[in-house]
Specification:
2 domains, four-stranded antiparallel β-sheet, 8 strands, alpha+beta
């Protein structure tokens, strides 16, 4: 009986020693506190059309994004375009695509902005009066924006006209 009690004691001792590191580790590990929310930001975009040094048009767009947020604005129209001998029509999207991703880092917001603008203009430089010109302007920029200050993030020149576009952005913290 003594031998059995001794064996049983050894089993309890070895088992206890085997479990102790696991119990000690479990007591030392504390769950990480949830990440502090960084906030929500309002991004005000102004797309200025400038011709001969004067603003002739401004379009405004607004996004609200959280840290690591992604936003998209799409505004377009389907425009009929004659194809072939002119008896058939095809429809082409023209308008604006504005994409933005946001990384909040202190008082600066890091933005990746992709702007694509397309439209039709009269035959300015084609030499063929019956065909309009389809313009596509595209800009992709990675930039830092200070809170509360408007910056010009991108300037895109129109290749066939004496005009250019400035994309201005201003960021403010909402929450």
């Amino acid at each position: 009986m003594r031998t059995m009690a001794k064996s049983f004691s050894w089993i309890i001792l070895v088992g206890g020693l085997w479990l102790l590191p696991g119990l000690a580790g479990a007591q030392e590990e504390t769950p990480e506190p949830p990440a502090k929310p960084v906030g929500v930001y309002r991004l005000d975009f102004a797309l200025h059309e400038i011709q001969n040094g004067e603003r002739v048009n401004t379009r405004n767009y607004v996004m609200r994004l959280a840290h690591e947020g992604v936003g998209q604005i799409r505004t377009s129209s389907k425009v009929p375009v004659a194809v072939g001998s002119g008896e058939q029509l095809d429809f082409v999207d023209v308008g604006l695509d504005l994409d933005c991703t946001l990384q909040a880092r202190g008082e600066l917001l890091w933005l990746r902005i992709v702007l694509e603008l397309s439209d039709f203009r009269d035959s300015e430089k084609t030499g063929i009066e019956s065909y309009p010109v389809r313009r596509n302007l595209r800009s992709r920029v990675d930039t830092a924006v200070p809170l509360g200050k408007a910056i010009v993030a991108s300037v895109v020149d129109d290749a066939v006209a004496s005009r250019w576009y400035e994309l201005e952005v201003k960021a403010t913290k909402v929450e």
